[in-house]
Amino acid sequence: MLFENNSWPNLICNLSFQVILPRRIPISYSVVVNGISREWNVDTIQHLITERYTSTERVTRIFRDDQANTRIRIDFHSQDDANLIFSKGYIYIDSIRYTATAYKPLTRIDRCFKCQQFGHKLHS
After folding, report:
1. Which of 9, 75, 108, 109 could disulfide-link to 58, CB 3.0 to 4.6 Å?
2. 72 near 98, Cβ under 8 Å?
3. pLDDT higher at 24 or 113
4. Cα separation of 31 and 52, whole Å?
5. How would you classify residue 7: left for phi > 0, otherwise alpha for psi between -120 and 50, otherwise beta?
């Protein structure tokens, strides 16, 4: 809702302004879906999800060690669609039920275990 231009007024105190929306969507609007076949094309999946959830912004496949994973990340404009999926715990894509969870990004912090300082590793 907040990521739509029509949600914001054009005038405040008789001053006109233009709303510039952020390029990044908060991670609270993102869902991870498990069990998606590696052969499925992301564009096809996005089309199928957009039919049911209109606030779908982007669908990306999650990779691990440069290999396609069976998980995808779905970003929504509206938190309503994400909350609906969180409350159910699943999502239907092409009449198939898949488990869905909240997206939690990995935090990777380099730490040297010799000097106990952050920002580098022992062998770098």
Report:
1. 75
2. no
3. 113
4. 15
5. alpha
- Residue pair 102/34 in contact by the 8 Å Cβ criterion: no
Structure tokens at 88: 């159910």
The pTM is what? 0.66
Helices marked H in 11-111 — which ranges? Answer: 42-52, 79-88
Label residue 3 by pLDDT band (50, 70, 90). low
> Which domains are assigned to the chain?
25-102 (3.30.70.330)
| Tokens of residue 81, six digits | 């669609």
Whether 77 and 51 have beta carbons less than 8 Å apart is answered as: no
The DSSP call for residue 26 is: P
Q: Is 66 helix (H, G, I), strand (E, B) or coil?
A: coil
Mean pLDDT of 79-108: 88
